[in-house]
Specification:
The complex is a heterodimer of chains A (142) and B (101). By secondary structure, chain A is α+β, with helices and mostly antiparallel strands. Chain A has helices at residues 18-29, 37-58, 91-94, 111-118, and strands at 5-13, 65-73, 76-83, 121-127, 131-139. Chain A has a single domain (5-139), classed as Histidine kinase-like ATPase, C-terminal domain (Heat Shock Protein 90, 2-Layer Sandwich). The longest helix of chain A has 22 residues, at 37-58. Chain B has 101 residues and is α/β, with parallel strands linked by helices. Chain B has one domain: 2-Layer Sandwich (Transcription Regulator spoIIAA). Helix content of chain B is 48%, strand content 26%. Chain B has helices at 22-39, 56-71, 83-92, 94-97, and strands at 4-8, 11-15, 19-20, 43-47, 53-54, 75-79, 99-100. Chain B is globular. The chains are: A alpha+beta (142), B alpha/beta (101).
Chain lengths: 142, 101
């Protein structure tokens, strides 16, 4: 039997209203794998965290673009959220629970912790002044 | 759906939005703080009956309000958490700092 493969890519403005759009786009795309409600919720939460980070920390300009892609390979889902914004100077620090550069906005500092809690694998690539790419993987029906 | 508010004898009950993300959180934060300050709220109740989604932006708003309320000796309560929200509360450690109903 051939391995199931599929891929999609969307690009949208860095506006907070698009956080909901991004979650729903990924949830709709992965339905062919018949994920459980729990798996869908986990993925929606992780996507929301990554996209929110791009909007709040990557950019300070709603006209800038966030790119979201999703690839299905068998039972494996790979999601990539990418911005060409500020970049992260210290990725290790940024991924520590409760660390935030925006406490005045009541940011909990739990974004990366949530991504790691709800996905199997999270990788972050970033360059100051060039942007950030978050790659997340999860196996469905594991 | 957006958040809605009910004041009852020093108690502010917040009907939390259907999807509590960063987009909804900013408005919720502003409105809640304004009401707490204006009406001298002593008890804050987050009612999640209508909430189907919450991420860490929601956690940030709740922790922030807990801190503010506790400063003045107020109470903070969460109620009607579905299974998913209970999981979010546990992952974030929120279940340790606030009362559930």
């Amino acid at each position: 039997m051939l391995q199931n493969r599929n891929e999609m890519k969307v690009c949208f403005d860095a506006r907070s209203v698009n956080e909901g759009f991004a979650r729903i786009a990924v949830a709709a795309f992965i339905t062919e794998l018949n994920p459980t409600l729990d798996e869908i919720s986990d993925i929606k939460t992780a996507v929301s965290e990554a996209v929110t980070n791009a909007i709040i920390h990557g950019y300070d300009d709603p006209e800038k673009k966030v790119e979201l892609s999703c690839r299905i390979d068998g039972r494996q889902i790979e999601i990539v959220v990418e911005d060409t914004g500020a970049g992260i100077p210290d990725i290790g620090k940024a991924m520590e629970p409760f660390f935030t550069t925006k406490p005045e906005l009541d940011r909990s500092g739990m974004g990366f912790a949530f991504m790691e809690a709800f996905m199997d694998e999270v990788m972050v690539q970033s360059k100051v002044g060039a942007g950030t790419r978050v790659i997340m993987k999860k196996k469905i029906g594991d | 759906m957006e958040s809605h508010y009910e004041l009852n004898n020093g108690s502010l009950i917040i009907g939390m939005p259907r999807e509590l993300d960063h987009h909804q959180a900013s408005q919720l934060r502003l409105e809640t703080d304004l009401l707490i300050e204006t009406y001298h709220v002593r008890e804050l109740v987050f009612d999640f009956a209508d909430t189907e989604f919450m991420d860490s932006s929601g956690i940030g708003v709740i922790i922030g309000r807990c801190k503010n309320m506790r400063c003045f000796g107020g109470e903070v309560v969460a109620k009607n958490l579905n299974e998913r929200l209970q999981k979010i509360f546990i992952v974030s450690g929120l279940h340790k700092i606030m009362q559930k109903q």
